[in-house]
Amino acid sequence: MADVIEVGAARGDAPPPAGGRLRRRGATERGHRATPYLFLAPYLVLFGVFGLAPILFGVWISLHQWDLQLPNRPFIGLGNYRDLFSSDSAIYGDWWSSVRATAIFTVLSVPLLVVVPLGLALLLNRSFPGRTFFRAAFFAPYVLGVAVIGLLWRFLLDANLGLVNRLLGAVGLPSDTPWVTDVPWAWVSLVGVTVWWTCGFNAVIYLAGLQDIPAELYEAARVDGANGWDRFRHVTLPGLRPVLLFVLTTTILASANVFGQAFLITQGAPGEQTRTVVWRIVDEGLRDYDAGRAAAMSVLFALMLAVVSIVNFRLFRYRED
Amino acid sequence: MTSLRRGVRYAVLLLITAVFVTPVVWMLLTSLKTYADAQQDPPSWLPNPFSTYGYDAIINNTANPVLRWFVNSMLAATLHTLLVLVTASMAAYALARLRFHGRRLSFALIVGTLFLPPTSLIIPNFVIAERLDWIDTLTVVVVPGAASAFGVFFLRQFFLSIPRELEEAAVLDGANHWQVFTRVLLPLSKPALATLAVLSFLTNWNDFLWPVYVLFSPERLTLPAGLGLLQGAYVTDYPVIMAGAMLASVPVLILFVLAQRHVIQGVSRSGLKG
């Protein structure tokens, strides 16, 4: 993503060629001084109210004892944050259990979501009859919403009526695995479903990256006698580095924000072991009306993710040197 | 040798396709079964008999007005898409083509929020929506999502890739900025606008977390939010639940088949080229 911004900023800020500048000045003189702001205004209103203000407002809420149902919202400083860190507070156990659940899911799902789609993209990265069809088929689950795939997989993974256990039974494997009600199966289910659902998305991003690698590089490697594995290691992987970083970063963010799969498929089971951070935040804030505490969780969680992203960038930068 | 390799390649591709497609086919087939048929062990692949039991149950349902949810979702996704197209394209024009004080700052702020997990804003956005009296209305599932930076960023990159010559010709003919924008730039940007429209529609149609927590009245729900209720009400009556899931899937699957190129292009652009 850093590359995206650098490219964008460079384009936006670079002084235009002299001719362009002169002509553009002429064009601007025709418009009123307010014209640019009028073009921006409709979006900026939306962005200000629902994109920018909530960032500051969220921090503000987190510093208050903010019950959605009570008119009085006293300022309590870092009280909500202290609760999240002190083991004698009522929320401590629930909060860290949700952090643990989210960490488990992220650590298990991200490697698969980075590697499996790369394999798919490599399979599709040359032209052959039917290529568009296969690409669409791999991508298709992603256009279904999480509500649909959640209901569908709750059914498929049903211990008694589900297709998964019945197919396993038909080939002589155990047919009574509690896929959605016990660990570790619940984790296998959540990760497996998420890979099935979203790996086509990452595959499409990889495909675009693969097509940007110049064919001459592969030719040169072939001339030098490199075999398929050598070409993958020395041409494909280095060529994909920015795409890999992008996929890794966005996938970590997406996995850490998992909600619908756990909400619909395992429904938190067993106990509350698969109840994730986002789920805990919205329940705390919007079901139990403790918006202050939920906002503190959101801020803390955003900071945790920021640290992960920064570490991620650092690691990749270093490897590049 | 090569024909053998080609054979293996197609076999692998077909196997993977089966993994992706079978669950969706199973959803369709189950939605056409009777309750008893869906309980059979071992399961029958094809419905026996073909039945509209599941669809009848969701159509004549006053406790769970599924068709109403469908209409709500259609309205919300359509209005959301229009709102995104209008606001994002105007803002992108200003950011790509006009010079003004604060351009850099506003672009940096907009792009900066792309890195923010949207879930981290849910609590403050709920409080804001409540102050606006939008909770449990159609507006609350149409408007706030349009603050996303993606559309502006995506269209700005596209506008920058269009050569200025055509616009300059229009300016020489006396066109003002609004005319340049609506008569020159927008017609040239049809593919990008179509891509953004399809992606916005999909995103809004599939949105789950936000509607579940901001809509309450049964007749106000969107389809994804309602499906959660359907699961609670019908537990293991899978033909009914799968019929509901089909209703939520068919429009987006049709849209995907018709606009596949746009969806795929939009996603691959979101990667590197912006």
Automatic annotation (TrEMBL), chain A:
GO cellular component: plasma membrane
Chief location category: membrane
Occurrences of domain ABC transmembrane type-1 (ranges): 99-312
Keywords in alphabetical order: Cell membrane, Membrane, Transmembrane, Transmembrane helix, Transport
A GO BP annotation: transmembrane transport
Signal peptide as annotated in the record: none
Membrane protein topology class: Multi-pass membrane protein
Region feature Disordered, mapped onto this chain: 1-27
Subcellular location: Cell membrane
Keyword Transcription: no
Chain segments annotated as transmembrane: 37-63, 103-124, 136-156, 185-208, 243-265, 294-316
Pfam family, one: BPD_transp_1
Family, as annotated: Belongs to the binding-protein-dependent transport system permease family.
Name the UniProt record assigns to this protein: Sugar ABC transporter permease
Gene source species: Micromonospora sicca
From TrEMBL, chain B:
Protein name: Carbohydrate ABC transporter permease
Record-linked InterPro entries: MetI-like, MetI-like_sf
Organism from which the protein derives: Micromonospora sicca
Keywords: Cell membrane, Membrane, Transmembrane, Transmembrane helix, Transport
Chief place of localization: membrane
KW Membrane (keyword) present: yes
Compartments, as annotated in UniProt: Cell membrane
Tagged with keyword Transmembrane: yes
GO CC, one annotated term: plasma membrane
ABC transmembrane type-1 domain boundaries: 70-259
Domain of life assignment: Bacteria
UniProt record similarity statement: Belongs to the binding-protein-dependent transport system permease family.
PROSITE patterns: ABC_TM1
Membrane spanning residue stretches: 7-29, 74-95, 107-128, 134-155, 236-259
Bilayer topology term: Multi-pass membrane protein
